[in-house]
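Hi again,

Forgot to attach this to my earlier email, sorry! This is the prediction with 6-O-phosphono-alpha-D-glucopyranose bound. I've pasted everything inline since the attachment limit keeps bouncing my files.
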Amino acid sequence: MCGIIGYIGKKEASPILISGLRRLEYRGYDSAGVSVWNGRDLVNVKRTGRISVLSDAIDEKRPVGSLGIAHTRWATHGAPSEENAHPHSDCSGKVAVVHNGIIENFVSLKKSLLSEGHKFISETDTEVIAHMIEKYMKVEDFESAVVSTLKLLEGAYGLVAISADEPDKIIVAKKGSPLVIGIGDGEYFVASDTSAILDHTKNVIYLDDGEVGVVESGGYRVFNLHDNSVADKMIEEVSANMDAIEKGGFDTFMLKEIFEQPESIVNAMRGHITEGGSVVKFGGLEGHEKRLSEINRVIIVACGTSFHAGLVARWMMEELVKIPVEVEYASEFRYRNPIVDENCFVIAISQSGETADTLAALKLAKERGAFTYGVCNVVGSSIARAVDAGAYLHAGPEISVASTKAFTSQITVLALLSVYFAQQFGKINKNEAHKILSHLEQIPNKVKEYLENVKDVEEIAKEFYNATNILYLGRGANFPVALEGALKMKELSYIHAEGCPAAEMKHGPIALIDKEMPVIFIATKDSTYDKIVSNIQEVKARGGRVIAIATVGDNYLETLVEHVIYVPETIEIFSPLLNVIPMQLLAYYITTMKGHDVDKPRNLAKSVTVE
Ligand code: G6P
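Structure tokens for the complex follow:
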């Protein structure tokens, strides 16, 4: 998501920091900053926008010194602004920190720091870290103060800190977010990602979770945060290939993003599940409880893949909250005269937060008095700013035009929102919520397990990549997955693909079926399983070639169809989170076999800011 680089040595730090930030820009950016020790003070320079803007500002301010840290931000807390850009400082300006990750308990930490008189200038979770270090440095040295601070942080971090009181060292720490130390000749680098430092050194050590590193111009040491034991770290040589590094070793951003899903789903859940896994919280909805108690209808507006996430959400909400839910294409909603009033909860789902139709639909709902809620990935985006409240996906930048990880993150947030509403409206008790949430919490590992063992999809792609039409069929919670599978296939491979409720097939699409036609059924074990098996028989009877997505252990379907792709078992409401993964992979493999650019399909845009 965000990028970190730091330098300690004999050269001028600023140019090294800027070139490192440029190398990290592909990870997403909305603002950036540096903090350099000039022999007297820590000089901070921060700007919104691209690294080139920061670079020009640094040319003007010329902070000269050989110790510095820098950060390129992709916002998670607070809109992109100079105040929210890293590095963050304490009250005295003597501490500077940069941080990747999310500090989940920052609200309570901030509260107590405020009560002790600390002054905050940003909305970020990171700023609390600088103030905590300041607080502990009143009685401890810099290193001990960082350790005392780390022990109180909940959540994830890749953290780098410097202090004007001990300007001969950089302190780094890792929990959940990557951090490396680069070893040069009489100089050291720290970074969130080796790509930032490869121009200077290929020798790195990778910090593990729970480790703290102290880096000085004469050497470094790493120790365990909890028992203080020295960590014996191996120096590894990085084989340099910038393209591969940006894509995390994958051939394309799309494949990288598909494989990021175990992590992005966890990030979507972060901070929402509390009280030992039995209560869901949404910070943005706190204080709105009275208004929410008057809600009698939910309307979801979205486009493209986000619309499909909305259809899954309808299923989950009707199931758990038992409230009427409508899902509308934003482009249609805005040009109708929709029945919306102040008892409506209108959810705008948008990865980019900039889709023009979704934004317009949202504004219309707001004008008519609805409570508006945003589910966006890009922090500070137009939709995120226009809503009454909202939740971010924290999925990291999605670069491939075809949406993959944002879809599963959207479903995850909407699943949590469904449990939240069910609890608010007294439809489920804590025990029931705990049961449901434990299934959700198992999803990332199940996705991981599936992705680690996947081999069948590529074989199936080889057989079908010359198809001219593909039909996707599903029912219930998985009808939207059929739509999403077809969308992925057509937008990437340019093969005509259609998604349809399996029973609707009889009313038209069945006419297309012949022995050439691949038909993909989402047929995992759920309440409509027997019905979908009958639909499979109907296709088989007409010579169609069937690929079934089935639950591990379901041996029956193998006797009926040509190909079965097995996915791990989960409860029905969360099955879309698993079933969509082979759909994404099938579209990916077929597209690469056809030789098309999988990350940039023709005619499409990642963010559609025109109607
Ligand atoms: C474009 C993208 C899709 C996306 C849709 C909605 O068509 O190519 O991947 O699903 O816009 O975008 P949003 O940012 O609002 O989710």
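The mean pLDDT is 93. The chain has 19 helices and 26 strands.

That should be everything now.

G.
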